[in-house]
Amino acid sequence: MGGDDFHKGVKEPSTKLDGSALRILIVHTRWNSEIVDPLVEGSIAALIKYGVKRENITVRDVPGAFELPGAAQRLIRQSQQHQSQNLILGSPQVSHILPFDAAICVGVLIKGSTMHFEYIADATTHGIMKVGLETGVPVVFGVLTCLTEEQAMQRAGIGKGEDKGHNHGTDWGSAAVEMALLGL
Ligand code: DLZ
Q: What keywords sit in the KW lines (predicted)?
């Protein structure tokens, strides 16, 4: 470990990922949208790189990070209910509504001068983990918890210096495909 060959971040997956049959949900915040939007774009670019069809990517927004787990849970559950209704009714009219195979929650929390950051970060992190475990659908944690705006911009690939940083959204997109394929 360490030295010149140290690989910071996540390595490419060891097996070829084919996301062409997957349906992915992205829920993102409107808080800090100038940083969140490139992260969402990075996630979508990675999903498409791994074969997910653009029409099978659903993007929804919520006000802030605190709302991410609740919204993700409702949208995942809704998609699962549509599927069981289809199975019961055998209805060809609604058979295009299929459950999501994975979700990505995207947001950016930036520390302020009060305890707000700590409470929201804690609730959001645990909430997102819980949604994944309770619905059985992998939910990728795409929330940056940064001390400064500059840190967040670096992690969205829009840093102000010569080094623009790395867009972590791309890692979240590949994680979603990889985790979704574990269940197929
Ligand atoms: C209130 C608040 C604050 C102070 N900071 C952020 C932030 O940095 N990022 C974010 O996504 N949301 C923030 N919010 C909003 C809360 O997440 C939430 O939307 C509100 O408290 C309403 O429930």
A: Transferase
Mutate to test the pocket of ligand 1, among 116, 122, 149 (most ligand atoms within 8 A of CB): 116
How close are the terminal C-alpha atoms of the chain, in Å?
A: 33
ipTM of the complex: 0.99
Q: Measure the CA–CA gap between 164 and 156, rounded to whole angstroms.
A: 8
Strand partners, 141: 105
Q: Hey, what amino acid is at 83?
A: Q
Q: Which amino acid is at 31?
A: W
The whole-number mean pLDDT for each consecutive block of 10 residues of the chain, a chain of 184 residues, reads: 65 89 98 98 98 98 98 97 68 64 98 94 98 98 98 97 96 97 82
Rounded Cα distance, 103 and 129, in Å = 11
116 included as an active-site residue: yes
Given the residues 28, 82, 96, 116, select the one marked as catalytic. 116
Q: Are 40 and 24 in contact (CB under 8 A)?
A: no
